[in-house]
Amino acid sequence: MKKIAVLAGDGIGPEVMAEAIKVLDVAQKRFGFALEYRQADVGGIAIDHHGEALPKSTLAACEAADAILFGSVGGPKWEGLPPAQQPERAALLPLRKHFDLFCNFRPARVFEPLAAACPLRADIVGRGFDILVVRELTSGIYFGQPKGREGSGADERAWDTKVYRRSEIERIAHMAFQAARRRRRKLTSVDKANVLTSMVFWREIVRDVARSYPDVELNHIYIDNATMQLVRDPHQFDVLLCGNMFGDIISDEAAMLTGSMGMLASASLNGGSFGLFEPAGGSAPDIAGKNVANPLAQILSAALMLRYSLGEEEAARAIEGAVEQVLANNIRTRDIAAAGHAPVSTQGMGDAVAVAL
Amino acid sequence: MKKIAVLAGDGIGPEVMAEAIKVLDVAQKRFGFALEYRQADVGGIAIDHHGEALPKSTLAACEAADAILFGSVGGPKWEGLPPAQQPERAALLPLRKHFDLFCNFRPARVFEPLAAACPLRADIVGRGFDILVVRELTSGIYFGQPKGREGSGADERAWDTKVYRRSEIERIAHMAFQAARRRRRKLTSVDKANVLTSMVFWREIVRDVARSYPDVELNHIYIDNATMQLVRDPHQFDVLLCGNMFGDIISDEAAMLTGSMGMLASASLNGGSFGLFEPAGGSAPDIAGKNVANPLAQILSAALMLRYSLGEEEAARAIEGAVEQVLANNIRTRDIAAAGHAPVSTQGMGDAVAVAL
Ligand SMILES: CC(C)[C@H](C(=O)O)[C@@H](O)C(=O)O
Ligand SMILES: CC(C)[C@H](C(=O)O)[C@@H](O)C(=O)O
C-alpha cells in the first residue's frame, strides 16, 4: 500500500485532480497495486482555512507519503497579499526545499493529433519536437543568500544572490545525462557563461560530469540564444539542462511552443524515489468550477508519479497510451477542441481516459 | 560637423558597415548635414592588433565622438579565450558601462513583405506585431557586486549578485514610459516579483514612476509568462520594460519571432544624446567575407543614430522608408530572399537603399 499526498489546491486544481484520481483508481485495479490517498489543503485555500499556504498538517501529510500529487495554486483572491505570502511562492518554494526536490523534469512535446494548435509555422511543427527540460529546483538565485533591501532615497537598493555549489551542479547534471541516455543522447546545457561567474562555474562542472557519459553528445548554449533557437528550430533539442531561473524561463517557453499547455506534466524529484508531480499550467481561475478544464496534464502527472515514485512503469505507460488514444479519437476538451467535434467536459475527458485504460 | 566613431568589428561587421556608411553619405548630401567618421578596432580584431578587445585608442575615439556606430564582434578564432577576455563581453560590457549607456532600445517588428519568414503560425503573424523592448543595460546581475568563486571540493561555489538601485530603475522606467508615449501607450514591465527581492523592488518603483504617466497603460508580467505570451500572441505587446538579464532574453526571443533577425537595429543611450547603435544579430562568421550578409540591420542602426544622437529625424525616416521600399520591390539578400527572385549581394542591397534614398 503506497501513500499519496493529494494537494489539489486552487482554481481548476480540485476538478482536474478528481479526474486523475479516477484514472489512478482504474489503474490500481488493472495493474494490481494499491494506493491510499490523503487529501490536504495547499495554496490559497490553505491560507483561507489555516492562515498559511503550506500548513504544518499538510507538510506532515506529505512527509508520511511516498509521493505528492499536486494540482495548482493561486488566484485573484490572494493577489493582494505581499509577494512572500502569495500562494505559489509560499507553497511551492518551501515544498521544493523541504523535500530537497532538486530535479525538475519538464517534458515539452507536440502531441501529433494536436499539432495544429502549435503556435509555430507548419513546416517547423512538421519536423516535430520532443524536449525534456531538466531544471535545477532548489538552488540558484531563487534560494541564494544574501537577499535584501537597504538604504533610502535614490540610493535605496535591493539584491538577490545567484549561487551554485559544485555538489548542486553535479547532481542535477547527472540526472540530466541519465535522462539523455534514456532518450536521444543529446544534452544541451543552458547558461550565461559569457557574463556570469556562477555560470562559468556551471559550464565547467557540466563538462566534468560529461566525462562519465561519453555516449551522450554535449553542447552549451547561452540563455538568450536558447530562447531564439527554441522558436527557430525546437526539433534540434533533446534534453535541455538549466539552472533554476533559466529552467523556469526555458520550460515555459518550450511548453507554450507545443500548443498543448493543458497537456504537459512535470516531476520534481529528490534523486531517490520521492517526488512531487504537477501540471505545467496554472490554476486558471477564469475557468475554475465550470467543468471545462483539461485534466490531461494532471492525469499525465499521475502517470509520471507511477513511473518515478511508485515503480509502476507499466501502469504509467498504459495511462499515457490511453491519453494518446483518446486524443486520436478526437475526444477533446474546449482548449484543444478539434474542428467539427463538440468538446467534452473535464469529467467527460476523465471518463474517456478511464474507459480507454 | 558631427563625429562618428565607426567600430566595425569582426565577421560580417566590416562588410555591412561599408553599406551603412554608403547610405549615410547619400543622406548627408540629401539632407545637408556633415559627418566625420573615425574608424577604430574593436573585438577580436582589436585583440589581434592591440592585445585587448577594447583598446584605449578605441575608447578615445569614442570619447571624441557624438555617437558610436558599432558592427559586431566575436568569432571562432577567439572562442578559446577565457570568458572575461572574449570579444563580446570584453568589448561591449565596458563600452556600455564607460559611457553609461543604461537605456537599450531593441525594436522587434514584422516587416510586412517578410511576414512569410516569421516562425509563427500564419494567423498569429497575420495580426502583426511591433514591440519595443527597453532593456536596462548597465546594472543588474551583469554588473552587480560581489561576484566570485571560493571553497574547494563539493563545497566549492560561485556567485553573482543581482542588484538594483532606486535611481537606476527610475531612469530606465522614465525612458520606457516616454517611448510608450510616442507609440501605442502600453507598457508591460517584466519581472520575477513573485520570487526575487530585487524584482519586488523593481515592480514597486515602476509603479511609482507610472504615476507621472497616467496616459500610459501599465501591466506587470513575470518573465516566465512573458516568454510564453510572446509566442502565443506577440500582438498584445507595445513596450516591454526589462532589467538587464531579462531584457537580454526577451529581446532575443522577440527578435527571432519576427523572422527578420538580419533587419533589426538597436540603440543604447545614455539619457542625453550620446549612444551606441548596432544590429541585433551577431558577427555571423560562417558567411563573413562572402558579400552575402544582410546590411539592413546596420543601415537601420545608422538611422537610429541619426534619430537619437544627431537630431536628424527626417533623414532617419527617409532611410527607413528607403528600406521599406527596397523590400517591397523584392530586392532581398539571401537570408530573406523571396521565392522566384535571385538574391542580391551585401553591396547590391546597400546600393539599392542608397538609390531609393
Ligand atoms: C510560482 C513560481 C514560484 C514558480 C517558479 O518560478 O518556480 C513557477 O513559475 C514554476 O515554474 O513552477
Ligand atoms: C555578448 C553579450 C555580453 C551581450 C549581452 O548579454 O548583453 C549580448 O547577448 C547582447 O544582448 O548584447
Automatic annotation (TrEMBL), chains A, B:
<keyword id="KW-0100">Branched-chain amino acid biosynthesis</keyword>
<feature type="site" description="Important for catalysis">
    <location>
        <position position="142"/>
    </location>
</feature>
<keyword id="KW-0432">Leucine biosynthesis</keyword>
<keyword id="KW-0479">Metal-binding</keyword>
<protein>
    <recommendedName>
        <fullName>3-isopropylmalate dehydrogenase</fullName>
        <ecNumber>1.1.1.85</ecNumber>
    </recommendedName>
</protein>
<feature type="binding site">
    <location>
        <position position="252"/>
    </location>
    <ligand>
        <name>Mg(2+)</name>
    </ligand>
</feature>
<keyword id="KW-0963">Cytoplasm</keyword>
<comment type="similarity">
    <text>Belongs to the isocitrate and isopropylmalate dehydrogenases family. LeuB type 1 subfamily.</text>
</comment>
<keyword id="KW-0520">NAD</keyword>
<dbReference type="Pfam" id="PF00180">
    <property type="entry name" value="Iso_dh"/>
</dbReference>
<keyword id="KW-0464">Manganese</keyword>
<feature type="domain" description="Isopropylmalate dehydrogenase-like">
    <location>
        <begin position="3"/>
        <end position="353"/>
    </location>
</feature>
<feature type="site" description="Important for catalysis">
    <location>
        <position position="192"/>
    </location>
</feature>
<feature type="binding site">
    <location>
        <position position="106"/>
    </location>
    <ligand>
        <name>substrate</name>
    </ligand>
</feature>
<feature type="binding site">
    <location>
        <begin position="282"/>
        <end position="294"/>
    </location>
    <ligand>
        <name>NAD(+)</name>
    </ligand>
</feature>
<comment type="pathway">
    <text>Amino-acid biosynthesis; L-leucine biosynthesis; L-leucine from 3-methyl-2-oxobutanoate: step 3/4.</text>
</comment>
<comment type="subunit">
    <text>Homodimer.</text>
</comment>
<feature type="binding site">
    <location>
        <position position="135"/>
    </location>
    <ligand>
        <name>substrate</name>
    </ligand>
</feature>
<keyword id="KW-0460">Magnesium</keyword>
<comment type="function">
    <text>Catalyzes the oxidation of 3-carboxy-2-hydroxy-4-methylpentanoate (3-isopropylmalate) to 3-carboxy-4-methyl-2-oxopentanoate. The product decarboxylates to 4-methyl-2 oxopentanoate.</text>
</comment>
<dbReference type="GO" id="GO:0000287">
    <property type="term" value="F:magnesium ion binding"/>
</dbReference>
<feature type="binding site">
    <location>
        <position position="224"/>
    </location>
    <ligand>
        <name>Mg(2+)</name>
    </ligand>
</feature>
<dbReference type="GO" id="GO:0009098">
    <property type="term" value="P:L-leucine biosynthetic process"/>
</dbReference>
<dbReference type="InterPro" id="IPR024084">
    <property type="entry name" value="IsoPropMal-DH-like_dom"/>
</dbReference>
<keyword id="KW-0028">Amino-acid biosynthesis</keyword>
<dbReference type="InterPro" id="IPR004429">
    <property type="entry name" value="Isopropylmalate_DH"/>
</dbReference>
<keyword id="KW-0560">Oxidoreductase</keyword>
<feature type="binding site">
    <location>
        <position position="96"/>
    </location>
    <ligand>
        <name>substrate</name>
    </ligand>
</feature>
<feature type="binding site">
    <location>
        <begin position="75"/>
        <end position="88"/>
    </location>
    <ligand>
        <name>NAD(+)</name>
    </ligand>
</feature>
<feature type="binding site">
    <location>
        <position position="248"/>
    </location>
    <ligand>
        <name>Mg(2+)</name>
    </ligand>
</feature>
<dbReference type="GO" id="GO:0003862">
    <property type="term" value="F:3-isopropylmalate dehydrogenase activity"/>
</dbReference>
<dbReference type="InterPro" id="IPR019818">
    <property type="entry name" value="IsoCit/isopropylmalate_DH_CS"/>
</dbReference>
<dbReference type="GO" id="GO:0005829">
    <property type="term" value="C:cytosol"/>
</dbReference>
<dbReference type="GO" id="GO:0051287">
    <property type="term" value="F:NAD binding"/>
</dbReference>
<feature type="binding site">
    <location>
        <position position="224"/>
    </location>
    <ligand>
        <name>substrate</name>
    </ligand>
</feature>
